[in-house]
């Protein structure tokens, strides 16, 4: 057993979620990464755009380390003027490379915050209610990890609906090694059970 390293543990789980989200875009067309597959419009590239904004806000602005300092933020950035939900989808003029590039820049910016500050460093979340605005880096890291992993789970489902691809991480799929016929039988069985349970 190695010596405890809480920052390294937290960063590992954050990076796994990041990697999973970006991997879910691999091999898909521009249409497929933007295609809304839920009634609320959830799509793969929008999920990546959203988590980029989450990291830049929570691990940047909260700790007095704004990413958009020398240049104005994009039109979808979290302001009163931005269109509702504009961080959850990519316009035709926003390329996959731009959004993934911004997300990778967010990783670097966040990682710098994590490396520079102690886990008990105090930050302020101005968009939260006044009584909850004062937070620690540890608190925010846990929140960002939870948000990233949650959206990685969304991406798992959206990708499976897109082309049937599944898996937790590239090279670490965590799926039983069964063929398509087995999965079709399994799904049919679950459908029968659901119908029986539903009367």
SSE blueprint and pairings:
Blueprint: H1 6-23, H2 30-34, H3 44-58, H4 96-116, E1 122-124, E2 134-136, H5 137-163, H6 180-197
Antiparallel strand pairs: 1-2
Helix pairs in contact: 1-4, 1-5, 3-4, 3-5
Q: How would you explain this protein's 3D organization?
A:
- This protein has 199 residues and is mostly helical.
- It is built from 6 helices and 2 strands, in the order H-H-H-H-E-E-H-H.
- The chain is globular, with a radius of gyration of 19 Å.
Quaternary state of the chains: single chain
Report the C-alpha radius of gyration, rounded. 19 Å
Distance between the termini: 52 Å
Tally of contiguous helical segments: 6
Features:
199 residues; mainly alpha; 52% helix
Q: What can be said about this structure in brief?
A:
The chain is mainly alpha-helical and 199 residues long. The protein contains 6 helices and 2 strands.
């Amino acid at each position: 057993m190695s010596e405890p390293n809480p920052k390294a543990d937290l960063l590992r789980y954050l990076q796994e979620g990041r990697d999973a989200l970006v991997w879910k875009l691999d091999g898909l067309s521009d249409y497929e990464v933007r295609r809304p597959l839920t009634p609320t419009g959830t799509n793969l590239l929008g999920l990546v755009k959203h988590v980029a904004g989450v990291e830049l806000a929570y691990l940047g602005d909260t700790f007095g380390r704004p990413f958009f300092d020398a240049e104005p933020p994009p039109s979808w950035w979290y302001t009163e003027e931005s269109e509702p939900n504009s961080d959850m989808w990519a316009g035709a003029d926003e390329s996959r490379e731009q959004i993934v590039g911004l997300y990778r820049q967010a990783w670097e910016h966040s990682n710098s915050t994590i490396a520079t500050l102690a886990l008990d460093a105090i930050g302020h979340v101005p968009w939260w209610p006044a009584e909850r605005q004062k937070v620690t880096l540890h608190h925010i890291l846990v929140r960002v990890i939870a948000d990233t992993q949650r959206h990685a789970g969304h991406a798992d489902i959206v990708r499976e609906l897109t082309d049937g691809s599944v898996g937790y991480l590239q090279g670490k799929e965590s799926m039983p090694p069964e063929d398509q016929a087995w999965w079709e039988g399994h799904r049919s069985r679950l459908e029968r059970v659901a119908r029986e349970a539903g009367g």
